[in-house]
Design goal:
single chain; mainly beta; seven-stranded mixed sheet; four-stranded antiparallel sheet; 50% strand; globular
């Protein structure tokens, strides 16, 4: 079973930055997808960003594009979400996920999920 562990969440004031990490326990090959989702209390799960290992293609949710960056360190089997200019609307539990590609957009169901890390942004 593939295990994913998120880290890097916490509390930050509006305008601040955080970097989330997702450590993956197994290598899924060159045709894999990586994704970050988030869920605020009382809200549905929301796709934030995805990355294709095969092509480098990324997708970003409109509300975060230009502020968030998804990236990976293949040698460490770890991927990241750098979040800049955070605002209270970014407050949510953030989840990382991965799957075999090729369709990496968040509308496609992901196979393996982490437990989540909380991000809280104060005004």
């Amino acid at each position: 079973q593939v295990r994913l562990v998120e880290s890097g969440g916490g509390s930050v004031q509006a305008g601040g930055s955080l970097t989330l990490s997702c450590a993956v326990s197994a290598y899924l090959g060159d045709n894999r997808c990586m994704a970050w989702y988030r869920q605020a209390p009382g809200k549905g799960r929301e796709g934030v960003a995805t990355l294709s290992s095969a092509t480098g293609q990324t997708y970003y949710f409109n509300a975060v594009e230009g502020r968030f960056t998804i990236s990976q360190d293949n040698a460490k089997n770890t991927f990241y979400l750098r979040m800049n200019s955070l605002n209270p609307d970014d407050t949510a539990m953030y989840y990382c996920a991965t799957k075999i590609g090729p369709n990496c957009h968040w509308v496609y169901e992901y196979t393996y999920w982490g437990q989540g890390t909380q991000v809280t942004v104060s005004s």
